[in-house]
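Appendix C reproduces, verbatim, an entry submitted by the partner laboratory led by Prof. M.T., so that reviewers can inspect both the input and the predicted structure.
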Amino acid sequence: ERLGLPESGTGSVAGGGRRLLGFLVDIVLAALVAGLFTVPEPPGNWSLLTWFVITALPVAVFGFTPGMLLAGIWVARLGGANSVGLWRAIVRCALTAFLVPAVIRNRDGRTWLDRLTGTVVVRR
């Protein structure tokens, strides 16, 4: 309510389950795409690079990753700006690698990632 978002439904703050689903889909997708280029060897750290590309760039431009699209959520900037922007997307992606900033949420349902970048993950 303090964020000016609806309590439930479209545009409300996304719950942890949807966020986790989107994250897991993105991780699996990154491993599969990286694996295409490293067969017969495991993708190793190439999965991280692929994950960065499929996470940071789509969030910067479209506001969602493939996993977020599947989970029915997207990243929005507070204050009414249209796009998340590249620096916010990169910070979100880099901090997600540490997991803790992506997991700890405040009473508004926003994670450290959201608070540091002035964003919020909402339901579509």
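The longest helix spans residues 16-38. Additional entries are available on request from the coordinating office.
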